[in-house]
Amino acid sequence: METSDFTTVLLVDQSPEKAFKAITNVRGWWSEEIEGDTEKLNDEFTYHYEDVHYCQIKLIEVIPNQKVVWFVKYNYFKFTKDRSEWTGTKMSFEIFEKDSKTEIRVTHHGLVPEFDCYDICSNAWTQYIQESLKNLITTGKGNPNASGRPTTEDERKFSASK
Q1: Cβ proximity of 40 and 46 under 8 Å
Q2: Are 72 and 65 in contact, with CB atoms under 8 Å apart?
Q3: Closest CA to 101 of 141, 54, 138, 61
Q4: What is the pLDDT along the chain (162 residues), one digit of tens a residue?
Q5: Domain spans of the chain, in order of start
Q6: Architecture category of domain 17-160 in CATH
Q7: How many CB atoms are closer than 10 A to CB 160?
Q8: The whole model's pTM is what?
Q9: Cβ neighbours of residue 148 closer than 8 Å, sequence gap 6 or more
Q10: Phi/psi zone of residue 37: left (φ > 0), alpha (ψ -120 to 50 degrees), beta?
């Protein structure tokens, strides 16, 4: 049976080690406002974007240069009927060597089309992974969001509507 969890795949020339370091540098590609540690097993961090999105995440699996898994302990969305969508879901970042390149497969287990946030969240994840994380791996500079500087199109819309 095919899964409907959100998945996106990157292919880069850099090493699995460089990809792993970028993935665990969450401030470098997702948000500069991440609070907490983001690199080791059992590290916990929080993410927030204005009053629109807040979540608490714990690293539940870390295999250097191979895999990182986040568990969403708590989530709040301002824009969904069920404001806790994502709570209890997992994000996996799997790293493989493939034809002298590095493949990164990112899956948000539990982020499915039935969620109110699916379109917005899958678009945002695609942008963060395919652009910001990829740039952090390949150039050393990602495009994370920061206070007053939305990154994704949906964040720009939310900021403009205030």
Answers
A1: no
A2: no
A3: 138
A4: 456 999 999 999 999 999 999 999 999 999 999 999 999 999 999 999 888 899 999 999 999 999 999 999 999 999 999 899 999 999 999 999 999 999 999 999 999 999 999 999 999 999 999 999 999 999 999 999 886 555 555 555 544 444
A5: 17-160
A6: 2-Layer Sandwich (3.30)
A7: 8
A8: 0.89
A9: none
A10: beta
